[in-house]
């Protein structure tokens, strides 16, 4: 008998970025679904690194807020790596998302995003998590802009992506201002 668990899966890039931007604990505290990473992503995030991001991710693993799962379908991982020019961690994350029918895959790798689009895997990026956290009211606008600056510094984002995110965050700020004043200007 099999059971069906819906989860969120992360590749290393997004997990590291949200840890560096100090979004990891906030995300894990408010997400309603289990969060998983493949074994290779655990190795990439926590193996030899001892930075603050690695410590935060390892703590989340130790506290079972994130679970590491083995990906057994080596053939699929190798095919994903070859077909989409992916690293092993990204390939394992996509394979795990496919196997578990994940609700969402956190991935910031451009080739990995393209693979998700072609394979029909729902995905988000660290910037997407930031914007959604602000939309849900989990962050104040000033905090969100500081975290965006951290993502811009640590991530490999095009300027247009960062600028678009800044505009979305500022638009949310303007909406909040209109609502808090009780009147709208026409």
CATH class of the largest domain: Alpha Beta
User: What is the CATH superfamily classification of the largest domain?
Assistant: 5'-nuclease
Query: What structural category arises from helix and sheet content?
Result: alpha/beta
Spatial extent as radius of gyration: 17 Å
Discrete helix count = 10
Separation, N- and C-terminal Cα atoms = 59 Å
- Any idea what the CATH architecture of the largest domain is? 3-Layer(aba) Sandwich
Would you mind describing this structure in some detail?
The chain has 2 domains: 8-124, 5'-nuclease (Rossmann fold, 3-Layer(aba) Sandwich), CATH 3.40.50.1010; 139-181. Helices cover 62% and strands 8% of the residues. The chain contains 10 helices and 5 strands; from the N terminus they run E-H-H-E-H-H-E-H-H-E-H-E-H-H-H. The chain has helices spanning 12-20, 24-30, 39-46, 52-62, 74-84, 88-99, 110-119, 126-135, 141-154, 159-181, and strands at 8-10, 35-38, 67-69, 104-106, 123-124. It has a 5-stranded parallel β-sheet. Strand 4 (104-106), helix 7 (110-119) and strand 5 (123-124) form a beta-alpha-beta unit. The chain is globular and about 45 Å long. 40% of the residues are buried.
């Amino acid at each position: 008998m099999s059971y069906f668990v819906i989860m969120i899966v992360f590749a290393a890039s997004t997990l590291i970025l949200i840890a560096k931007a100090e979004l990891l604990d906030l995300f894990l505290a408010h997400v309603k679904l289990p969060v998983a990473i493949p074994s290779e992503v655990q190795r990439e995030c926590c193996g030899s690194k001892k930075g603050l991001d690695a410590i935060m991710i390892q703590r989340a693993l130790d506290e079972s807020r994130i679970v590491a799962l083995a990906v057994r379908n080596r053939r699929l991982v190798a095919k994903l790596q070859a077909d989409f020019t992916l690293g092993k961690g990204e390939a394992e994350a996509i394979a795990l998302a496919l196997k578990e029918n994940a609700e969402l895959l956190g991935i910031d790798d451009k080739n990995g995003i393209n693979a998700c689009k072609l394979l029909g895997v729902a995905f988000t990026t660290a910037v997407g998590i930031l914007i959604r956290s602000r939309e849900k009211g989990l962050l104040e606008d000033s905090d969100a802009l500081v975290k965006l600056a951290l993502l811009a510094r640590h991530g490999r984002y095009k300027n247009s992506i960062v600028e678009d995110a800044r505009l979305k965050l500022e638009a949310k700020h303007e909406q909040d201002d209109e609502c808090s004043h009780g009147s709208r200007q026409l």
